[in-house]
Design a protein that fits this description.
The complex is a heterodimer of chains A (about 130) and B (about 280).
Chain A lengths: L1 H12 L16 E17 L6 E7 L5 E7 L3 H6 L12 E9 L5 E8 L5 E3 L12
Parallel strand pairs in A: 3-5
Antiparallel strand pairs in A: 1-2, 1-4, 2-3, 4-5, 5-6
Chain B lengths: L6 H16 L17 E3 L36 E5 L20 H9 L23 E5 L3 E6 L6 E5 L16 E7 L2 E7 L19 E10 L2 E9 L8 E9 L31
Parallel strand pairs in B: 5-6
Antiparallel strand pairs in B: 2-3, 2-10, 3-4, 4-5, 6-7, 7-8, 8-9, 9-10
The chains are: A mainly beta (about 130), B mainly beta (about 280).
């Protein structure tokens, strides 16, 4: 078990240098000074280019439900890193950490996602975004 | 999704990511990688891995070996490559101590550019020498060299290798008119006839229709393709300058479909410039 965990750490440690990809500037669209941590229910998954997207319903502090638009990398990048179009499904309960759009809309670049099965995965969403928080 | 976390799959991921890091490019793995789980940041069920990535030097898994050659003796550039041009910042291809000789009007134009207007962000082509941060394939035959781009709106570029000259007055286009020749083992691609619409990078380095590029591609070994590109554009730059970028081979990779126009939602949310982005 200890050996397996060591391999796990080795595998994880290499994640951050593997540049994530986007066809546009991250800094112009998202604000790392507006980090978001969103817990909610997946309402839609768009396995599309140039970015895969998913949408989640999140209850805000006043109890109102707000739908967030969350950007991932392109499906090709995600597939090459082990994602599939089945990784996220409507109805899944997920937690997303990322950076909100600079314009303040309910849109964010997802950096990490805790999937329905509890796995925390990297979202490979932008080449010039800072590495995910540890 | 059913988790299937195993040591082999994690080792595969580690290898995959090492390639990407070593090449300053995304990770390499065959397209058929459905056996992998999405890359995981933390161990499941209470695991608490918090690696300090600065202490890890990824293994360089770029393939090495002799440069492959065609039957006629010229180097064979075919294969799927990643990188080889600027993405975020053209200046990252400069030699140490050099600067980009932007003319004042060109600098003023660049300074006022906003990323929302970057053609590539709007799913238009990168032009040359910019590259999209996705794999691309080079294909050679007796009369042509083709660049097939996965990203870069899934487009292609053609280079005439039959000895023809440039037309006297080419229509301005995104990739221009390219003619190729050999200088020893180096493929020299000379291109004119560009439009002035594309940006050289996220930062918005501009050019005019006077742009003339000379790319010199040298396959240093099996896994390394150097692109030494000279930019000549008296409209925006005070003198020619040369940049060097390196593409890395992605063995066993295949290009995948990428139709950028399908669901572009980014440009309308962008504000301001790209700052000083790093090339991936």
């Amino acid at each position: 078990m200890k050996a397996a965990f060591a391999y796990l750490v080795a595998g994880i440690a290499l994640l951050a240098p593997a540049a994530a990809l986007a066809h546009h500037s991250f800094a112009a669209e998202y604000d790392t000074k507006k980090p978001v941590s969103l817990k909610g229910t997946v309402t839609k998954v768009e396995w599309t280019n140039p970015h895969a997207r998913f949408y989640i319903d999140v209850k805000n502090e006043s109890g109102a439900v707000v739908n967030w638009n969350l950007e991932l990398a392109s499906p090709n990048v995600l597939v090459r890193q082990g994602w599939s179009r089945h990784s996220l499904n409507v109805g899944d309960q997920v937690t997303v950490e990322g950076a909100q759009a600079k314009d303040g809309s309910q849109m964010a670049n997802a950096r990490t996602v805790i999937l329905a099965d509890g796995k925390k995965v990297f979202a490979f969403s932008a080449s010039d975004a800072p590495p995910p928080s540890q | 999704m059913k988790p299937n976390l195993s040591v082999p799959s994690l080792l595969a991921m580690a290898s995959v990511f090492a390639v990407g890091a070593a090449a300053q490019a995304p990770a390499t793995t065959p397209a058929k990688s459905s056996a992998l789980n999405p890359a995981e940041l933390t161990a499941p069920a209470g695991g608490s891995a918090n690696p300090d990535t600065k202490r890890v030097r990824p293994r360089d898994t770029t393939p090495h070996g002799p440069t492959p050659r065609l039957a006629d003796g010229h180097p064979d550039f075919s294969g799927v490559w990643q990188g080889g041009g600027p993405v975020g910042d053209l200046a990252q291809g400069l030699a140490p101590g050099e600067t980009i000789p932007l003319l004042p009007a060109a600098k003023a134009l660049m300074d006022k550019r906003e990323s929302k207007d970057d053609p590539e962000a709007n799913c238009l082509p990168t032009g040359i020498p910019r590259i999209a941060p996705y794999p691309w394939r080079m294909v050679q035959d007796a009369t042509h060299v083709y660049f097939l781009f996965e990203g870069n709106i899934h487009s292609f570029r053609q280079v005439f290798m039959d000895g023809r000259k440039h037309p006297d007055d080419p229509d301005p286009t995104w990739y221009g008119h390219s003619i190729g020749s050999w200088d020893g083992d180096t493929l020299v691609i000379d291109t004119i006839g560009f439009n002035d619409k594309f940006w050289f990078d996220f930062r918005g380095h501009p050019h005019t229709e006077q742009l003339h590029t000379i790319e010199r591609y040298t396959r240093k070994d099996l896994g390394t393709l150097e692109n030494k590109v000279t930019i000549i554009d008296p409209g925006d730059y005070s003198k020619p300058f040369t940049l060097t970028f390196t593409a890395r081979l992605r063995p066993n990779e295949e290009l995948m479909e990428y139709i950028c126009q399908e669901n572009q939602q980014d440009a309308q949310h962008m504000h301001g410039s790209a700052g000083l982005p790093q090339n991936p």
